[in-house]
Amino acid sequence: MVNEYERLIADQPVSDNTYKYGDRDVTPQELYLCLMIEESVKQLDLDDVAAVAMIILGRPLVPTRGKFMFATKNTSVASVICRLLFDVKLSIRMPTITGATLGTLRISWTNNLGAFIGRKVPYMGWTIAVYDVIAINLKTMMRYNSLVRPEDKINDATSGHFG
């Protein structure tokens, strides 16, 4: 379904290299930015609040008992809560990723189900955030390419134009 802005853009190119967006004449770059803002507003919702919360709750900010030399110094709120909710000792050790920064990331093994789940929380948050960035960019590019003249389309460099 075409909205009012898209109809104005598609029907009324103002000059060689401008488009109508609402009541303004915009360049192709400005049009892309406006469409990206619209797509961002559509995409970002409660899931993104959850993603940010997961990322923050997964940061190792809570002081803990003494640990070995190369262990991450603190623990996360997510790990503390998950250890309380899922305090189950497993017969096998499962791999998790630990570390406060990219430089300190490493594989760590645990047989505690709560620790295993808690250490996954920030990565689930980052996964949601990355998905949203990709979705916003793809939707913006496809919408932009459906509205502009062929010479202003964005080429994805693999299979031609999107949209």
The structural class is alpha+beta
* Principal-axis shape: elongated
Number of strands: 6
Task: Specify Rg, calculated over alpha carbons.
Answer: 23 Å
Strand content: 15-25%
The SSE string, one letter per element, is: HEEHHEEHEEH
Strand order of the largest sheet: 1-2
* Low-pLDDT residue spans: none
Proportion of residues in helical segments: 40-55%
How would a crystallographer describe the biggest sheet? 2 strands, antiparallel
The average pLDDT score comes to 80
What distance lies between the first and last C-alpha atoms, to the nearest angstrom? 15 Å
Count of spatially separate domains: 2
Number of helices: 5
List keywords for this structure.
single chain, 18% strand, 5 helices, 163 residues, two-stranded antiparallel sheet, two-stranded antiparallel ribbon, alpha+beta
Please describe what this structure looks like.
The radius of gyration is 23 Å and the shape is elongated. The mean pLDDT is 80. Helix 2 (28-43) runs antiparallel to helix 5 (113-147), helix 3 (46-57) packs across helix 5 and helix 4 (77-85) packs across helix 5. It has 5 helices and 6 strands. It has 2 domains: 4-45 and 136-152, no CATH class; 47-125, no CATH class. With 163 residues, it is α+β, with helices and mostly antiparallel strands. Strand 1 (19-21) and strand 2 (24-26) form a beta hairpin. The protein has helices at residues 4-11, 28-43, 46-57, 77-85, 113-147; strands spanning 19-21, 24-26, 60-63, 74-76, 89-98, 106-112. The strands form 3 sheets. It has a two-stranded antiparallel sheet with strand order 1-2. A two-stranded antiparallel ribbon has the order 3-4.
